[in-house]
Every structure is written in C-alpha cells, then in structure tokens.
Amino acid sequence: MTEPTPRRRGRPPRAESGDTRDRILGAARKEFSERGYEKTSVRGIAKAAGVDSALVHHYFGTKEQVFEAAVSVAFAPALAAPDAIAEGPLDTVGERLTRFVLGVWENPATRTPLLAIVRSAVNNDTAAAVFRRLIAAQLLRRIAGRLDVPDAELRVELAAAQLVGTAMLRYVIKVEPLASADLERIVALLAPVVQGHLTGE
After folding, report:
1. What is the pTM of this model?
2. Which residues of 1-18 are buried (b: 16+ CB within 10 A; e: fewer)?
3. Which of 120, 98, 118 is nearest to 39 (CA)?
4. Highest-pLDDT range among 103-107, 126-130, 188-192
C-alpha cells in the first residue's frame, strides 16, 4: 500500500515556488467551487494542495485574498471583453458584447468556475465585495473607457445588469424556456437591448 504524500512544511525552494503557487490556486478554485466561500478554509485549501497552511498565507495572505486570486484566474477569459467590443463599429457593439459574454458562459471550461464565483458572491458579503471590485475595476471601467458616449460607466453597468441577469436565469437558476433556448435566438433578442443601454439616446 502506497503511503500518502506528506504535506510540505515551510517555504519551497525557488524552483518549486511557481508550481506550488499554481497548485494552491488550483486547490482553492476546487474548494470554493465545491464548498462555497463560507465553508472553505485556508486549512482545507492547504490540505487539498498538499502543503502547510503557512504556505497559503505566504503566497496569498487571508482567505479573502486567496478567493480574489482564484477568481481573477477563473474570470480571466471575461476580462478580454473590452478588447472584443473594441473590434468593430459602435452601432454593433451590443451584439459583440452579448455574444462574447454569453459565449464565456456557454463554454463548460469557463462556466464551471464562473458558477462557483457567482454562487459565493450571492451567499457571502465578503465574496460579493471581491467579485464587485474585480468586475468594476477590471471589466466595467475598461469597457466604459472604450465608449465615447455620455454616462459611459452607468450605461455599461446597465448593459452588464442585463447580461448578468440573463446568465443567472439561463445558467444558474435554469428557468425555462430561457435555459434551453437556442443561443442565436437569445443573442438576436438581447443584443438590441444591450445596444440601447450602451449607445441609445
């Protein structure tokens, strides 16, 4: 019978530090996804990563900071949205943004961590604050900066509310017929509304 690998104590050699950090992040994403923010602990993340709790604190600090790091990695595909909407004329920006955001949710590889993030944010104020900070600083403000319109930040937030609400009903709550509707049909109906928020009078 193979003996279980003991947890590593203390700081790893420099050559291993990148791998250790990635392993902790991977374990954190899995723990937050399966248990939610409330029930996840630094000790549990360390155990899943096969390291001592002190290493988790060394690399990331508090549980909130671990969550923010895990969220940032999982949310990375969505952060390409500002670049996606910039590629084309302003009068079709609503369709580009709608197609991009729903495309991130349609992909199982990006949907699973996003579901964990949203569920944690809905159920915990600390997780919600981290999610809000990430969304505001890294996504919404960047998109607003690409729009040459009055009240750009407010417009982007309204568009985001429309898209997040749709994603919640389709992918999280799974309300029918929205949950099983054809993606192209949803884009066709939703994009003009998003366009109106972004550029309408």
Report:
1. 0.71
2. eeeeeeebeeebeeeeee
3. 120
4. 188-192
